[in-house]
Write a structure and sequence with these properties.
- The structure holds two protein chains of two kinds.
- By secondary structure, chain A is of the alpha+beta class.
- Chain A is about 40% helix and about 20% strand.
- Chain A has helices at about 5-15, 35-80, 185, 225-245, 245-250, 255-270, and strands spanning about 90-95, 100-105, 115-125, 140-145, 155, 160-165, 165-170, 205-210, 215.
- Chain A has a five-stranded antiparallel sheet with strand order 1-2-3-4-7, with helices on both faces. Chain A has a two-stranded antiparallel sheet with strand order 5-6. A two-stranded parallel ribbon of chain A has the order 8-9.
- The longest helix of chain A has about 45 residues, at about 35-80.
- Chain A starts with a helix and ends with a helix.
- A two-stranded antiparallel sheet of chain B has the order 1-2.
- In chain B, a hairpin with a 2-residue loop joins strand 1 (about 155-160) and strand 2.
- Chain B is globular and about 60 Å long.
- Classes of the chains: A alpha+beta, B mainly alpha.
- The interface of A and B includes residues 42, 45, 60 and 64 of A.
């Protein structure tokens, strides 16, 4: 008996089906499997699987891309006022704490015919945060009013007070860290810029009340870590805006001809 | 006929994947923080189970025994990826709320377990029935587990959730603190323990009655 036969015997023993609870009549007979047959079967199975996946990929590539773009536009629209342009198409890339960052610009036609940027949406994540999240990545989209440089506060469609801070992705503990998505927590960011103030216009710093007596963010009880992380992310979006303010306001995006034409006037005015 | 209903009903009670076979505990414990999460995971798992059971039952006589496990894994992984891509492309809303759980299904041992113990030994029809029974049993168990944990741990019962739309019942007033531990990892073990104990107690009583 060769080694190979022995191995096969052992394998066959292992493979005898246990007394199954159900029907075993149709179980296949033990086959004499040559190495070539094994290799061939596995190859065919993986090739068919690969072909099926490749086909499905080709089929779903377009719709997935469109769906992603729709989703992005929806979260950006949430933090911006009504725009005369498409903020996603009119986005520019600027340098930020997380490297190249896209800034989505919202323009509004003025009575004088100009079409300036009135608000921007900036997304930042917890990547590179000093204050880590509790689990996974948190991504936040913040809407900033370009005139005042402050985080937008507005009334939503239902007439409820809202703040332009949207947590688009997180995997914090439900019931604890997930409370960061509630308006009760987010409202603290309304109308703040890099020099935050409390209700009595007293100067504060970008920290939670737990970390500094000057902090203005009231941390969620039981989720201080999440509160710290979100606070830092929101601050980062403001840093991106302030560092690139001129670029954001003046850059004309090539390819958006219409926007470029209506925009030409204000740019010339701004140049010294 | 009685055989058909027997195959399907096994998944609910006598061979309930979570409470009796104790298979797929990883997703069970991890995602049942809310009723809706449990339901989503259950439905996604059932879809993959159905697909893989059908495929494996069809190719069961062609696959040599020695390479059957790798073949099953390839079939299951392909199905999970297919479901993931199709959902993302065509039912994006659903994908947004289930997205996290779908890749997890590959490592769910119920799928491989049913492929090995049932679909690779039975006809197509019986394999489909088995997938439906097991899938429904898994879904219902996860939904109940998620409901209990969410009601106790968060005071709510989420039936549907997508972006702004939220169908939620509140059981404990917002001002009262719920039993937070129930939606944290230890709560999963506690709840599952009580579920299994309860099931065994009922089983014992039924036996006494019958015997």
């Amino acid at each position: 008996m060769t080694d190979k036969d022995e191995a096969q015997d052992v394998a066959n023993k292992d493979d005898t089906p246990p007394p199954a609870t159900g029907d075993t009549k149709s179980a296949p007979e033990p086959q004499q499997d040559s190495a070539a047959r094994l290799v061939l079967t596995l190859t065919i199975v993986t090739m068919v699987a690969g072909a099926a996946l490749a086909g499905a990929h080709a089929l779903t590539k377009g719709p997935i891309k469109a769906a992603k773009a729709r989703k992005k536009l929806a979260s950006i629209k949430k933090v911006l006022p009504k725009c005369t342009n498409n903020p996603v198409k009119d986005a520019i890339k600027v340098a930020g704490p997380q490297g190249k960052t896209e800034v989505y610009r919202c323009r509004k036609k003025q009575p004088d015919g100009s079409n300036p940027v009135v608000a921007v949406a900036i997304e930042q994540s917890s990547k590179g945060n000093k204050h880590k999240t509790y689990s996974g990545l948190i991504r936040v989209v913040v809407g900033i009013d370009t005139k005042s440089g402050k985080i937008r506060a507005f009334k939503n469609k239902k007439g409820k007070q809202e703040v332009a801070v949207v947590i688009v992705k997180h995997s914090e503990t439900p019931g604890l860290g997930s409370k960061a998505t509630d308006y009760d927590f987010r409202k603290v960011f309304a109308g703040q810029d890099l020099k935050p103030k409390d209700k009595t216009s007293k100067g504060k710093v970008w920290m939670t009340t737990k970390d500094s007596p000057l902090g203005f963010v009231d941390a969620i009880s039981g989720a201080t870590i999440t509160s710290r992380a979100v606070t830092e992310i929101v601050k980062k979006t403001l840093i991106v805006f302030n560092k690139n303010k001129t670029a954001i306001l003046t850059t004309v995006k090539s390819g958006t001809k219409k926007a470029a034409k209506t925009e030409a006037a204000p740019i010339q005015e701004m140049q010294p | 006929m009685s055989n058909t209903s027997k195959i399907v009903s096994r998944g609910f009670w006598s061979e309930n994947p979570v409470l009796v076979l104790l298979l797929g505990l990883c997703p069970t414990l991890a995602v049942t923080t809310s009723a809706y999460n449990g339901l989503g995971m259950g439905v996604a798992t059932m879809a993959v189970l159905l697909g893989s059971n059908i495929c494996i039952s069809l190719i069961r006589n062609v696959i040599p025994k020695k390479v059957r496990i790798p073949c099953f894994i390839v079939v299951i992984a392909t199905f999970v990826t297919l479901v993931d891509m199709l959902l993302e492309a065509f039912v994006n809303n659903l994908h947004a709320s289930l997205g996290l759980f779908i890749p997890l299904i590959v490592v769910n041992c119920i799928i491989l377990g049913r492929a090995e113990a049932w679909a690779s030994r039975n006809t197509l029809g019986k394999s489909i029935l088995d997938a439906v029974g097991m899938g429904l049993g898994f879904t219902i168990t996860l939904f109940l587990l998620g409901s209990v944990r969410e009601i106790l741990g968060n005071g709510t019962l989420t039936l549907f959730q997508f972006q702004e739309t939220l169908v939620q019942l509140r059981f404990i007033a917002k001002s009262t603190d719920p039993i937070l531990v129930m939606i944290l990892p230890p709560g999963a073990f506690i709840a599952l323990g009580f579920f299994i104990a309860g099931m065994n107690a009922i089983q014992a009583k039924l036996k006494k009655k019958a015997g």
